[in-house]
Design brief:
D-Maltodextrin-Binding Protein, domain 2, Double Stranded RNA Binding Domain, five-stranded mixed beta sheet, globular, binds ligand PBG, Porphobilinogen deaminase
């Protein structure tokens, strides 16, 4: 029996990184189900976040900005699934939507991009580092209080060009994003998670659907990665206990190894002088609890002025 195409409409932002991720999900679906590529139609949706490029972004209200219009399209049934960087997703989703799963996670680490040199040690005192991430800024200040960290926003290309031109001496980017864009060679080094923790969800591509749309979910479930799903459940539960607003420097990373999950989380003051760390282990069937407990213990440890109540 022939069925009219497309079978699924996939919503995504239009940035090169978002499009790569959307195509990765389409490729996984098409390969698994042995469909024609046209069976998954990619629908590009412009979000508020795409329209704002200055500091107003962080004041305007954080994470939802890159997902709002896409989630509205899902709820209005203009698309059947949405693909996002897991890192850019808030911990609370709109009613009626859920994350059905993730592609196998890529390298979670941050990369350092230097104009000259090969490691953090090669940056001279006073060197100018650009980032828009409070988490990266605080961790960098902790390791190198002598550096000058200032705001550098824009897509990956923009940030790289401002280092190349000399406007900045260095910047930090997720190695996963650079790799997806074919630019892993721009990384001078990748920072070990032992002293530089990634954002919750970093390196993972999330697939969001309507909660009660079992027909769609049944097509997606076979291509999602269970271990990544467990890790993200831990990390997102941890973040939900602490902050959804992304105004506090927070890092978190869960690693699934056999039957055990190891979670590590950090919270810092903006200037990096205060640093709180937690490490917890738990079994696979207690992923949610592991993240919640880690988050609550972290909250109990951190001075209240570092976290929103
Ligand atoms: N905030 C933008 C964003 N969202 C996801 C990635 C990288 C890809 C990933 O982490 O999966 C990036 C760029 C960056 O932080 O370097």
């Amino acid at each position: 029996m022939t069925q009219s195409l497309p079978r699924l409409r996939l919503g995504t932002r239009g940035s090169p990184l978002a499009l790569w991720q959307a195509h990765a999900v389409r490729d996984a679906l098409v390969r698994h189900h042995r469909w024609e590529p046209e069976a998954v139609e990619i629908v590009v949706i412009r979000t508020t976040g795409d329209a704002i490029t200055d500091r107003a972004l962080s004041e305007a209200g954080g994470k939802g900005l890159f997902t709002k219009e896409i989630e509205e399209a899902l709820l209005e049934r203009r698309i059947d699934l949405a693909v996002h960087s897991a890192k850019d997703m808030g911990t609370r989703l709109p009613d009626g939507l859920h994350l059905v799963g993730y592609l196998p996670r890529a390298d979670v680490r941050d990369a350092l991009i230097l104009r000259e040199g090969a490691s953090l040690r090669d940056l001279p005192a006073g060197a100018k580092v650009g980032t828009a991430s409070l988490r990266r800024e605080a961790q960098l200040r902790r390791l190198r209080p002598d550096l000058k960290v200032s705001l550098l926003r824009g897509n990956v290309q923009t940030r790289l060009s401002k280092v190349a031109s000399g406007e900045f001496d260095a910047t930090l980017l997720a190695i996963a994003g650079l790799t997806r864009l074919g630019m892993a060679d721009k990384a001078s080094c990748v920072l070990d998670t032992a002293d530089f923790l990634p954002a919750v969800g970093q390196g993972a591509v999330a697939i969001e659907t309507r909660q009660r749309d079992l027909a769609v979910d049944s097509l997606i479930v076979p291509v999602v990665c269970p271990a990544t799903g467990l890790a993200l459940r831990v990390e997102r539960a941890y973040l939900a206990e602490l902050d959804g607003s992304c105004r506090t420097p927070i890092g978190g990373h869960a690693l699934v190894s056999g039957e055990e999950i190891t979670f590590r989380g950090v919270v810092l003051s903006a200037d990096g002088t205060q640093y709180y760390e937690i490490v917890r282990h738990g079994p696979r069937n207690r992923a949610l609890e592991l993240g919640m407990v880690a988050g609550r213990e972290m909250r109990a440890m951190v001075p209240p002025d570092l976290l929103p109540s």
